[in-house]
Amino acid sequence: MNNFGSPEEINFKEERKNFLNGIAPEEIADNFPLFITRQELVKYLVRYELFKKILNVKGSIVECGVYKGSSLMFFANLSAAYEPYAFTREIIGFDTFTGFPNIHNKDHLAYNVGELSDANPETIEKSIKLYNRNRPIGHIPKVKLVKGDAVITIPQYFIENPSTLVALLYLDFDIYEPTMIALKTILPRLPKGGIIAFDELNDRRAPGEVGALLELLNINQHEIKKFPEEPHISYIKL
Known about the structure:
Elements: H1 7-20, H2 25-30, H3 38-53, E1 60-64, H4 70-82, E2 91-95, H5 121-133, E3 143-147, H6 150-160, E4 166-171, H7 176-186, E5 195-198, H8 207-216, E6 225-227, E7 230-237
Parallel strand pairs: 1-2, 1-4, 2-3, 4-5
Antiparallel strand pairs: 5-7, 6-7
């Protein structure tokens, strides 16, 4: 994606990248508080708060826009830790893994086809295998990756899996068309108490997300809540 950061932000990222170079991956994984940024930590804390809100709500967790898989696997590990025998709670992730398939005229002009293509689904799949070895009833599949253009794969998935309800829909596609399809397809499957979470509402960089929301929900009838510690993530509780 185009870099919208300030010069100070870009310099910090470069300095942090240099700091991490040469440090063994297992050391980073085992001692992550040494290396995680404040912004990254807050994103996980907020996702934890979202998960707690649906802990007693029936349905799966759907993430739209998996990218490199950290958020998907964080939700999966929360489920394994807090509800280890909830085998019907699936964690389902949709992504092309080849970047944006197309750009709509309702999207940011700076976006380009193919952006965010640096994800590696094979790495995520290996992580899922390790995850299954380290949780109760790991022989029952829990995390699903659905690859391809979500405009096609989301409706197809729910046709093929008609029993699926959704407790948490996490929208992080950034762009209009797949966000609209996700809302249109999944909203009828969200029970009262379910959560729709957004990663870029009211953000000049992602007008498509707002456009899809305004088309499919009357926001005058819903509270759109935010977190004081994290400027991007917001949610609607049904």
